[in-house]
Amino acid sequence: MQNPSKRFAKQSYKNNNGHKYHYPILKLHDMDATPAWLSQQIIYHILIDRFNGIDTTKDSKKPEFLGGNIQGIIDKIEYLKDLGITTIWISPFNKTSAYHGYHITDFYAVDPHFGTETDLKLLIHTCHHNNIKIIADFVANHCSNQHPYFLEAQSNPNSPYKDWFIFTNYPDTYQRFLSINELPKLNLHNLETQHHILNAAKKWQNLGFDGFRLDHVIGPTRTFWKQFSEELKKENPNFVLLGEAWMMGIRWNELSTINIPFKRLRWFFPRRPDKLYKDYQNILDGCLDFYVQQLLSQYGNGFLTTAWMHRHIRRHYKRFKQDYYLPSFLDNHDMDRILYQLNNNKNTLKTLAYLQFNLPQPPIIYYGTEQAMSQEKSIWDCPSHGDVLARQPMQWNTQENDLYEFYKELIRQRKDMLLEC
Fold this sequence. Notes:
- The chain has helices spanning 4-10, 48-51, 70-74, 77-83, 117-129, 148-155, 191-207, 222-235, 263-267, 274-277, 290-300, 306-318, 338-341, 346-357, 401-420, and strands at 43-46, 87-90, 94-96, 104-110, 133-139, 167-169, 173-174, 176-177, 180-184, 211-215, 240-243, 286-287, 328-329, 363-366.
- It is of the alpha/beta class and 421 residues long.
- Helix 11 packs antiparallel against helix 12 (306-318), helix 11 runs antiparallel to helix 14 (346-357) and helix 14 (346-357) runs parallel beside helix 15.
- It is globular.
- The chain starts with a helix and ends with a helix.
- Mean pLDDT is 92; it is low at 1-18 and 24-32.
């Protein structure tokens, strides 16, 4: 089968001077290496609590459960099919103390706010029945401070769970996810803790997921991730593992909580996250591409010339193995929505989306971007919980047909290019 990105290179972006910008080839690769199926996917990123099934009487500006659930996603599969989505990526569904799901209190259970394990099975089945893959967020670095094992470890110095965490001054001082007290860091050097996390991952893998997006991969050691990858690939070689490798916003005193080579040196150069991705080239199938997101956002705001942006994207791709995935995205749940970043200019958003969909890497759409979702002010202008501004409920009652149809056509064209390969 011919390489699809060769076709993308032929269709590469042309500026007003008629200059074409080509990108290195992402080869379709051996199924014994990186799973080839991801290269042909259009991914849709969903925050479960904020997508569908929401209680409209609740205040969406507060960091609380709004009622979005797994059944709500099932009910919108036809919408996603019509758009042309081929993979959905859902936020953590585990039992949790926070609406977004990243504060886990039970790695082996589905949170009742989101539904049941039966609902999750039905979602996976419905996706596969409609030729849609499904990947989920998986958190291995930390848990909620409401997790029963942590509560016991804090209250009982003789607890077997005390060594599951890293207490620096027992019982109130411990390593955390960065500086967030609500998220104690797991001691993954402890074999029992390792097995607990690995077995949880295998449980959800065996339920039928097609892959995981691995939260905060720079927290655990690469040795842990190598074991994690080997164990899951034994179960299913085509299971995709994508890392979130990102250092922006990390403070000097938080470096003790992460495990990457030369971390203090890298702390001085946080705007080059692509260097982090190389750490995981022989461990994971790829990493989410924050570097390309930065370039596209800066270009959209007029800070970069077209030639400069394309030159750096080409160089960026050449740094990696040809079978290493770097899915592109314009925004996500941890940053301002892209339309807000572009001063609500839909035409500029269309330009960036066009560029994104002509890159030789699988594109990701954050829920609502295709419906022109924006926000009132930056998440960084709020003293606390500003991220809820970028996580507002999907606006099902105010459809944005123009942008939706634009994305639909972009997806159709990308699929046509893949079929011609």
